[in-house]
Write a structure and sequence with these properties.
Largest sheet: 7 strands, mixed
CATH topology of the largest domain: Rossmann fold
Helix content: 25-40%
Structural class: alpha/beta
Distance between the termini: 53 Å
CATH superfamily of the largest domain: Vaccinia Virus protein VP39
Strand order of the largest sheet: 9-8-7-10-13-15-14
Shape: globular
Order of helices and strands: HEEEHEEEHEHEHEHEEEHEEE
Radius of gyration: 21 Å
Length: about 325
């Protein structure tokens, strides 16, 4: 595709930024063995969008323009975004997925968008994951949690791993590949548990030792514990409400109960890794005096999200020791 406009105009700034980011981040991704990463996140004024690369495909999400932006200008920029991706990255239109991202409530970001599925496998270190570029707002792989998944894999050797709100079980795959003795992954959605099963199979993970459980997480945690785990990952949605749930879930309102109940499942010396993407989240540590809590967010923001360090928060939690000595190092 060709465009005659000079590259010092608004559109040209976007094209040049995409080319620059591709040179810079592409080298880093190749060294890290990563085939899916964020290339662009509203870097150029006027083009509010997130652009992720999945191998030789692009996943483009435009943030809905605010009301004060002229509709004709917004429409022009919307059309220019995929053209800039095609020109700067040499990706043909049939390999560009384009969506408009609006404020979501509950699990609406996980609901089917109606497009025909375009799936492919992408590598993340020693793991491979199935992504769907079209069917849902999200692709099945949360790119900003990549360092957290890696850290779980590094800590999992010989441990029993519990993954709550497991989504497509990408963290479970890392744990299994890292040598976890066993795992249990819990999610309410059959669609995502089926997807999780495909991810486990693609990585030769033994389904006998790594169970998938369909259940409402809060309801499941309210049952008397019958087993314990050495490492627990909790990555809940900001808000969730379903007919299959006994009650709604709000991470601001319910995280104390959620983490306290998860801590009841910890084996001696065990650890919880908790993350969420609520931009205004505040950990109510005073309500959980029995837990030692350490904010590790800075160490979990990957290079491709450094422009947006508030993309998520992440904490490590352990039961406090009787002697008062710190247990998280």
């Amino acid at each position: 595709m060709r465009r005659s406009a000079p590259l010092d105009d608004e559109f040209g700034m976007l094209v040049n930024r995409l080319r620059k980011n591709r040179r810079h981040l592409g080298k880093w991704a190749r060294r890290a063995g990563i085939e899916a990463y964020r290339l662009y996140d509203s870097d150029v004024p006027g083009y509010a969008a997130a652009i992720d690369l999945y191998r030789d495909h692009a996943h483009l999400q435009e943030y809905a323009a605010p009301a004060h932006v002229d509709p004709e200008t917004a429409e022009r920029r919307r059309g220019e975004l995929p053209r800039a991706v095609e020109l700067a990255l040499e990706i043909p239109p049939d390999r560009i997925a384009f969506k408009v991202r609006r404020r979501q409530r509950g699990r609406s970001q996980y609901e089917k968008q109606g497009a025909a599925a375009r799936t492919l496998l992408v590598r993340e270190g020693e793991c491979v994951f199935e992504v769907d570029l079209d069917s849902y707002l999200d692709t099945g792989l949360f790119l900003d949690h990549r360092p957290t998944r890696t850290a779980i894999g590094e800590r999992a050797a010989g441990k029993r791993f519990l993954n709550l709100f497991c989504y497509t079980a990408t963290a479970t795959v890392h744990a299994a590949r890292g040598g976890a003795a066993s795992s249990t992954s819990v999610d309410l959605s059959r669609t995502y548990l089926d997807w999780a099963a495909r991810n486990l199979a693609a990585n030769d993970v033994d389904p006998e030792r790594h169970r998938l459980v369909q259940a409402d997480v809060l309801g499941w945690l309210e049952q008397p514990p019958t087993e314990t785990w050495d490492l627990i990952f909790v990555d809940p949605p900001t808000f969730s409400n379903s007919k299959r749930m006994e009650r709604s879930f709000d991470v601001l309102r319910d995280h104390v109960e959620l983490l306290s109940r998860a801590a009841e499942r910890l084996a001696p010396g065990g650890e919880i890794v908790f993350s969420n993407n609520h931009r205004r989240f505040r950990m109510e540590a005073d309500a959980m005096p029995h837990l030692e809590i350490r904010d590790v967010t800075r160490s979990t923001i990957p290079k491709d999200f450094e422009r947006n360090p508030r993309i998520h928060g992440c904490w490590r939690l352990r039961r406090r020791t009787d002697d008062g000595e710190p247990s998280i190092r």
